[in-house]
Amino acid sequence: MSYSHIHCGSKVMKGKGKKVFDDWGDEQDDDDIGLEYSVLLSSQLESQRCWYEEKMNGLVVEASEKVEEIVQELRRVEEAKRCAEAERDEAILAALEEKKSFAKEKERTDRKWEKLLERLTLLEKTVGEERQMNKILRQNQDSFEKALN
Fold it and tell me: Coiled coil where (predicted)?
């Protein structure tokens, strides 16, 4: 049985400074009992306060560690993001350069193609003219051969 139970279980607790008897029949002054009770209660409250402060300090430390972990993870993620963005930008620049290169190559190829088409058209015209000339020359040759015979 605790001190508070003994104190509350006393038979006579009236008047300041009067004698009271506890459950065991021991005589005590109620001022002494009140003082002891206050000291005991203060001691218990102080113990509770210390316990809760330790708990709170532990939680604060835990929370600080968690915050630090989150901050570190955030820094890692931001660095990874920066690297990914840099790689993306490099890839975009490379693709743009390649596109420019392909555009220049296409332009050169188109110009060559046009020149080849012009040459082909000219050659076809020339071949057509030569065939016409050959046809005429054969006709002339045939007519000379008939005239000679």
Answer: 60-106
Q: Phi and psi for 47 in degrees, rounded to 5? A: -60, -45
The full DSSP string for 21-42 is: E-TT--EEEHHHHHHHHHHHHH
The number of domains in the chain is: 1
State how far the alpha carbon of 73 is from the alpha carbons of 37, 59, 69, 81, 91, in Å: 53, 21, 6, 12, 27
Which residue ranges in the chain fall short of pLDDT 50? 1-15
Q: The pTM is what?
A: 0.45
Give the pLDDT confidence score for residue 32 in this predicted structure: 75
71 lies in which domain range?
3-148
Task: Record the tokens describing residue 55, joined without a space.
Answer: 């708990």
Q: What per-residue confidence (pLDDT) applies to 13? A: 43
